[in-house]
Every structure is written in structure tokens, then in C-alpha cells.
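Quick one:
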Amino acid sequence: MRDRSNRALGLCLLALLLGSLLAWAGCTASQTAYPTEPPQRVTAEFHSIALLPAQFVSNKPDGFCDDDIGDELRSALARALRSRGYEVLTVPDRSPGSFALDPPTPDPGTIPDLLQRAPSSVDAAIGLWVEDYLATTLCEHLEAKDLEMGVALVLYDVAQEKELGRWRAREWDSGLGTSRDTIWAVTLRLTDRLLVGIP
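Output:
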């Protein structure tokens, strides 16, 4: 009788282990399935860049502690670009607080209407499309904060109105710190990966 109980317990543990492995594999597959662009580096020379307002195309921040996350991402990009010697201009967002989704990421070679907001005085402009956005308990003080973002960055020549390159990245972070800590970690890592092709 004891042997049967031990055998049943062993089968239950084996089933739990296999279930956990399958769940982990599913999560890994979903992360690696995020579309990426072929590695590329910009060869055109430019000295000034306009950062256009971030576009949220699938889901928008809806909490008081993440409503400015698009500007947080642009701030991280601006700091990194200035450290490389570029003059950076952040174009003001004219529609803060709107819950309407923005237009989807433009097809390669397509010039979005958003580019018209770039000043003619700059050489290049960066468009940001947040294609995936998932935030959990960012506004809770005593719970772990989870944030996942998938972003497409497209670089444009302003004068010629043409695309110079595009890059995609996805980052995730979770922790018991403040919402600012989580947002800072995700936007910093996204910046490192999105600017990989801009010297």
C-alpha cells in the first residue's frame, strides 16, 4: 500500500515538473518571438536629432505612476545621444493623457505624418512606437512591480523625408522597489539596444 502511495506521489511530482517546464518554455518562446530587425548601422552623417513623441499602438499607460513613461524613454534616449555628441531636441507631446491608441508602426520606407512635427532645422528625427506595453502593480507600494515594453525605433532624414534605419527591442523588469526604479531599469536597457545602430 505504501509503495502505491509513493508511486502516486512520484507521478504527481513528475507531472508538476513537466508542467512547469512547459510553462517556462512557452514564456521563453513568446519573448524570443518578438520581431527583430536585421543588424544595421547608419552610415549617413548628421549632428542634430529630434525625438518625436512616443506612440502607443497596442496598450496605453493608465496609472498615475506610469503616465509619463513615453517621456521617460525619450529622456533616456536623449541622454545617451547627447553623450555621443549629438544635439537633441525633444518635440513636445500635444496629446498627453489621451487614452486613444496611436497609429501603428509604419511599414519600412513609409513616411508617417508624425515626421511633420520635426523642426526643419534638425538633420534627423527619431520616431518611437511602443508596440507592446504591459504594466502590473506599478502603483502599489508593497507589491512587486512588473513592466514589459516592446519598442520600435525608426530614424528619419528630415530634409529628404526618408527612412535611414529601424531597430526593435523588448525589455522586462520586476522588483519590490519603487515604480521609478522599474521604469528606469526598462527604459535604460531599451535605450542601449535601440541605439545599437547609431554611432
